[in-house]
Amino acid sequence: MGMVICFVLGSFLSVPLILHCRGQLTIQGIRDNMQWTVVGSALVYVLGLTPAVTAQTGLAPKKFLNLPLGQVKPSGWLHDQLIVQTNGLAGHEHEFYDYVSETDWTGGPSYYSNLEEAGSYWFNAMVANGVLVDDATIQSQVQYFLDYVLDHQDTDGWLGPEVGTTKPRFLWGRYPFFFGAIQMVEYNSSLAERVVPALHKFVSLANTMIHNGEGLEDWTNTRWEDFVMTLQWLYDFYPEGNEDLLIDTMKMLKLTGDPWEDVFKPEYFPQTAVEDLTNPFPELTWHGVNMAEGLKALPSTYRFTHNQSDLDAASTGWDLLFQYHGRPSGIYAADEYLAGLEAVRGTELCLVVETMFSGSYLYQVIGDPKFADRVERITYNALPATLTGNMWSRQYLQQQNQIAARNMSPNPFPLDGPYSNVFGLEPNYPCCTVNHPQGWPKFISNAFVKTPDDSSLVHVYLGPFSTQTTLANANKVTVNVDTLYPFSDTLNTTITAAKAFTYQVRIPSWVTGGTISVNGAKAKPVAPVNGLHSVKVGAGTTRLVLNLPADITIESRPHNSVAVHRGPLHYAFDISRGQKVLAQNAQQPMAVDLEFDATETWQYAIDPSSLQFHNEPPSSGTLPSPVFDSGLPPMSITATACEIDWAIAGTTFASAPPSSPACTGPATTITLRPFGSTKLRIGEFPQLKITA
Ligand SMILES: *[C@@H]1O[C@H](CO)[C@@H](O)[C@H](O)[C@H]1NC(C)=O
Ligand SMILES: *[C@@H]1O[C@H](CO)[C@@H](O)[C@H](O)[C@H]1NC(C)=O
Ligand SMILES: *[C@@H]1O[C@H](CO)[C@@H](O)[C@H](O)[C@H]1NC(C)=O
What we know:
Elements: E1 5-12, E2 15-22, E3 44-47, E4 65-66, E5 72-74, H1 76-87, H2 89-96, H3 109-112, H4 118-132, H5 136-151, H6 175-187, H7 192-211, H8 218-222, H9 224-237, H10 243-256, H11 260-263, H12 288-294, H13 297-305, H14 308-325, E6 334-335, E7 337-338, E8 346-348, H15 349-366, H16 369-385, E9 397-399, E10 404-405, H17 431-435, H18 439-445, E11 448-450, E12 456-459, E13 465-471, E14 475-483, E15 490-497, E16 501-506, E17 515-518, E18 524-525, E19 532-537, E20 540-547, E21 552-557, E22 561-566, E23 569-574, E24 577-584, E25 592-598, E26 604-606, E27 612-615, E28 635-643, E29 648-649, E30 653-654, E31 668-674, E32 681-682
Parallel strand pairs: 12-16
Antiparallel strand pairs: 1-2, 2-3, 4-11, 5-13, 6-7, 8-9, 10-25, 11-12, 13-14, 14-15, 15-20, 16-19, 17-18, 17-20, 21-22, 22-23, 23-31, 23-32, 24-25, 26-28, 27-28, 28-31, 29-30
The protein binds 2-acetamido-2-deoxy-beta-D-glucopyranose (3 copies).
C-alpha cells in the first residue's frame, strides 16, 4: 500500500492548525460540531488543539419540503378564522400599537428599534397573513418594512437600527425579519434580486463578527438555529457560490450557541417546574420561548452534520418536554421558565406559536408523524383558547384549569406578574402582541408539503385548504379540501392533476376505523405507513372522501385527575363568565383588557365511564364566525358529574384537583366543550365513580 503523507497548515478560530497524515485511513470527529472528511488512506494526527473544518458534503436533505408561501391557502372556516385575525388585533396593531405603529415609521430612531424584536416579529407574521387573505393593505405595509430595512443596510452589511450609532450590534433581532423576507421571496421570486444580495452581505459580516466573538449575547446564543435556517434557505435556493461561508457560519453559530443537544438529554432534562433547580447550561435554555424555538436547533444541525444522532436527540427532547411539562391542550407549560404539570401554571402565547412552527419544521426534517399530530392539537386547542373569540385580546399566560382571568392575588406564577392571564393588549409583556399573529398563517402554509423529488404532494394538517402547486414533469396540481374538520370527521378532497402522481394524506394517530373512498367507490379502511395514506391519483379529477372517526380517550393527569379528548380536540368544562373592562386603548377602542370571572359552580368531579360524544352539524353547513368562543363549536361531550369540595387557592385560581373527591350533591350531567372555545375552564377533573 502506498503511503499518503500530508501536511496541512492553516488557521481556524485564529488558532494555528497543523495536520499531519500518513498511512491507513482513519476518520475522526475531533469535536462534536466539527467533522473530518479524509479522502484516501491516511492516518490523521492533530498537532495543536484545534478543530478542523474540511470539505463538507453539503446539506442533508429534509424529508419533506414546504411549499412556497401562497401555494397553500385556507378555505372554509379556516379562511374565516384568518379573517377574524385580520380584523382583530393582528391586522390592526400596525395602525395604533406603539411597537409597530406606522406613526413611528418615519425613519427615526423609534422606527429602527423595530428590528430589535417587535418589528421583526410583526413582519414575520404579517407577511404570511397578508398573502393568505389577499389583503393589499397588509401586503403594502410589509413591503414598506422590507424596503425600508434593505434601503438602510449599512455599507458593511449590517441590517437594523445600529447603523451610524454606537449601539451594540447583536444578531438575534434580525432573525424573525429574515423569516419574513424569505416568505416574501417565496411568494414573489422577483424580490430575490434585492433580498438575496442583502442577506449574503449580512452573512459575510456576521461570519466575521462571530469569528471575532462579536454580535453574541444570551438571547442570540439560545436562538442561533433561526439564523442557521436562514443560511440553509440561502444554501438550498440562492447559494451564489458562498456555500463554504454559509456552512462555516452555521457551524460557528452552533459552536458559539447554547448546547441544545445537551439541554435535551434525558440526564439533564428537568422533570419538574424549574424554579428550584439549577440549570447546568445557560439559564435561558429553560426559558419557555427559547425552548420552543430551540426545538429547531437539532434538526437544523443535522442538515450540516448529517448525524442521525442529532435527529434522535431532537425526537427525544420533544418527548421529554411534553412528558414533564405537557398539557392536554397539546402545548407545554412555561410561565417564563419550564413549569411542570400543575394545572394552574402558565403557558406563554409566544411559545404556543413558536412550538407550532418548530413542530412543522421537525416534521419536515424528520418525517415522524408525532410532530404533525401535536402541532394540529396545539393549533386547534391551545392557540384559540388563549385569545378572545374575536382575536382582539390575548393572554400572556393560559392555564389548563383557569377559573378566572384577572389580576391575581396571590400570583400563581413565580416569575411572571399577577396580570399575566388577563385577556388584553399587552398583559405582562408586549412580545406576544406582535408574535402571536404567526400562529394561524404558518400552520396554514405548512399544511401541505412535497417530497424532495417533487413526485408526491402530502396533506399534513387536516382542515379546509386549497392548494396549487407544480410537481415533477410540469405536473400542475390543485387540491381543494372541503371540510369542517376538526369540527367534523369527514374531509372531501378534490384533486385535479395534469399527470398521474402519488397523493398522500396524514392519518392522525387518534383515528380509529378511518376509511377512504376514491371517486365514489366503496369506502376502504385507511392504511397509513408512517402516518401517511397514499393514493395513486390519475390525470384529471379525483375525489376522495375521508372519514376519520376517533374514540373518546382519557388522559391521566396529576393528582389522579383526568383530561378528555376525542380526535384532535381536547374537551373542557366551559365555565360561564362575567366580564369587566380593565383598560381600553386610547386610539383603538377595540383593544381592551378584559377580566373574566366565573358566574357558575365549576367544582365538579366526573365519572370517566359516562362520557358521551355529541355532534350537531350546523344545518347551514357553515360554522359560526368566530367559532372559538363559548358554545359555538358543534361538538361536545357530556359527563355524569357531581359537585365536590374543591378549594380556591388564594382568591383566584383553583387548587390542585382533589385526588379522592366525594360528591357533595346529586349526580348531574355537565357538558364539556372544545378547549379552544373556552376562556374559563376546567380541563383536568377529579374523577370518581358515580352511581345515579
Ligand atoms: C455525531 O453525534 C455523536 C453523538 O452526539 C457525536 O459523538 C459525534 O461527534 C457526532 N459527529 C459529528 C460528525 O458531528
Ligand atoms: C413582485 O415584486 C415585484 C418587484 O418588487 C413587483 O414589481 C411585483 O408587482 C410583485 N408582484 C406581486 C404579485 O406582488
Ligand atoms: C362530502 O362528500 C359526500 C359524498 O359525496 C357528501 O355526502 C357530503 O355532503 C360531502 N360533504 C361536504 C362537506 O362537502
